[in-house]
Amino acid sequence: MTKSPQEDKILTVSSTERLASPDALLAPACDWGGPLMEGRSNTLPGLLNALGVYVLVVVLFLFGTFVSRDFLTTGNLLTALQTVTLLGIVAVGVSFVTYSKHYVDLSIPGIMALSGIIAISALKWGFAASLAAGVLAGLVVGVLNGLVVGYLRLNPIIWTLAMMSVLSGIIRKAYGGRQVYPDETTAAGRAFLQLYHAEVLGLPLVVVVLVAVAVAAHFMLRKTAYGAQLKLTGSSYEVARMTGVEVRRTVAAAFVLSALTSAIAGILLTSFNKVGACYIGKGYDFAALTAVVLGGMTLAGGRGSVIGVLGGVAAIALLNNVMSLADTGALFHGIFDSVKSIAQGVVFILAVGIASYFRRRSGVDGE
């Protein structure tokens, strides 16, 4: 039956009002799992989709016990945990960018290297000042990324890749290609070198930082107006703009948050390596994006959760750890050392492909 122009107008207004209503805008920004099928999360496929990354974690854990006796040793598990912490801190931050449908921040390695080397250079003003300087350096880059991508709407891949190149060039030029070491003869220098290995209430500081960052990010995405606005922006940029969301500011803030966590991780990684250099943080951008996507946060934006991202981080850490142990064992000796990057690439492709398949099957979108 043909609708009259007046009926079409009423339907359009009703749809817009529904999208702009406070209930729609302030709905929970994400669920526990990955790209849960809207309206179908109570079905078996939705449940499997939510828990899939943790099933993979269990499988990798069991495989690790099979390939090496050293897998369950305290030393190996602590090594795997240390790998998880820094990657987790970075991945939680970049998840805001992915959630906003801006894919990834490829300037992450440059931010990590810059923050670490600035922190070492500022040790002459004290330990606290050096940490503040390192974080501030990362935030400056994040604000610049946010302004360009959020307000000028340049392609996030092209811009952040260019920023990565610029930061690497600045570090090389400013320090003449030299590595920078903390001065161990000063109290500030010694404190910086011990930063990565420090403990809080008997727990490693890096673990405490990861937990704090993850809890804060989870709260922001699920319980705040910003999280709801970011969800709507990632789901449909134009709809978010028409309903009154400050979409440019929302996207810009996502890049600032990504830079903040990258700066924190960069300082901790520099402390661990005991040296500041332009190569600090290399590979963390792709590893973080792989963990984010594997954890169910879709590149289509507006779907996913911090809980899922942490599962993706754990899976990546276990994958690398198991392949390292398998390569040194008699059964798989020499097989895995040369294929780690290939394995991460395959995992990323599969994660994106499977997520896209479930989105199309559930009729959410075809992006």
Order of helices and strands: HHHHHHHHEEHHHHHHH
Radius of gyration: 22 Å
- Roughly what percent helix? over 70%
- The low-pLDDT segments are 5-48
Query: Between the first and last Cα atoms, what is the distance in angstroms?
Result: 31 Å
Give the count of helical stretches: 15
Relative strand content: under 5%
Question: How many β strands by DSSP?
Answer: 2
Task: Tell me what the structure shows.
The chain is an all-alpha fold and 367 residues long. It has one domain (41-362): ABC transporter involved in vitamin B12 uptake, BtuC (Orthogonal Bundle), CATH 1.10.3470. The protein is built from 15 helices and two strands. It has a two-stranded antiparallel sheet with strand order 1-2. Helix 4 packs across helix 13 (284-294), helix 9 packs across helix 10 (225-235) and helix 10 (225-235) packs across helix 12. The longest helix is centred in the C-terminal third of the chain and has 27 residues, at 247-273. It is globular. It starts with a helix and ends in a 5-residue tail after the last helix.
